[in-house]
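User: Here's a chain of 130 residues. Predict its fold as tokens.
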Amino acid sequence: MKDYCRLLTKCNLLDFSLCIGVIHIRSYQHMIDEMFNTVGQAVGVHVILLVVEHSLWKTKHKYEDAERIHFSAEGIVLDDLSQLEPEKAQAIAEEFITMFVAALGRLVGKQMALQLTQQLNEDSASDMEG
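Assistant: Prediction complete.
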């Protein structure tokens, strides 16, 4: 929060909305970094990159400026969104995060359903033997 306050004190009134936009982008960047690192450790970098690519593709269908979002095995970068109007940058970041979380939810849901099915099959087999 101190960084945000320092950033705001450097801004004049004309640049206030731009500074607020930068703060929002930094908040979204932090959230995405946490998700990328945590989920990446759980499912692997190749899977997370596929999820990111799919999420970005869906976001680009709604917002052409989503091409400003960049990613690699090191992470996702939203910095270029700060060049847009704050409201537009925020909308793009929110859409991307929504698509990312939705894709992860489907992935985790399918994995859990598969594990549950396997467990039920194993339980049924052991009940028939016993």
